[in-house]
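Homework help board

Subject: predicted structure for assignment chain

Our instructor gave us this sequence and asked us to write out the predicted structure in token form, then describe one feature. I got the tokens but I'm not sure how to describe them. Can anyone check?
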Amino acid sequence: MGRFVVGIVGNFNLINDEYPVYAAGKMNCDALSKVSKVIPIILPSSPEFTTVEELTSICDGFLFTGGRPNVHPSNYGVKETLAHGDFDRDRDALTLPLIKRAVSIGIPIFGICRGFQEVAVAMGATLHPEIRDLDGRMNHRMPPDGTLEEKFAIRHQVNFRNDGNFSKILGSTRIETNTLHGQGIAEVGNRLVIDGWASDGTPEALYVKDAAGYTNSVQWHPEWNAENDLVSKLLFEAFGDAVRELWKGKIIFWRLSYKLSPFVLRFVPQFFI
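My token output:
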């Protein structure tokens, strides 16, 4: 059997300030292909071109990437202000229902930076527009100058629960990460488990409580140097393993269904899509 397909929700951009494109960072593709061992497919981040039902029928997992625009505050019941920055309402309109659907049927998802915040909002959390303005918080934003190596350099620690998902995957309750975000989780909501925090108390790792599949998501950027950075490598390996494990279960179910009764096969697609 060949490799499975993971959809990367791309970002809208303009080449030379005039040519519209949907794009995703090469480092996301590298991490998925070379570490997760799946096929990365870039998806246009707008419901204009596809539906949640179509995407969940053709993709075996989803990577929700970072991006400069923020989730619009109306999605978590807050009035828009200048502090909330720029938005991509089309991406909101696709990713939030896609996350809810994927979580409900067990398709593995991995949220990074904005994607981490999308998973949080989809599961009922709210966001603070500028966490560096909060007492005791550090500036988590990307440095304005420097090389990519300098911008993605290690900047703070993340501490995990002793018995949480991340400490099991990483084999440690403390790691060091980069940080390139301005917003952060404010109110958690009932469906999220915050599994890791920066030293200033900012939520940095989460998963969805009682989810049917893999939902581990992070506020930092593990796609940077994922082949060589141990933490990043372990996270993307775990995501790839989750995609393959899901389909092992589906294949077993199909085989059992076929042996039990050929008529059962009529109803199987409704179960998986």
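Reply (TA_rk): Your tokens look well-formed. For the description, you could write something like this. The longest strand covers residues 192-198. That's the kind of observation they're looking for.
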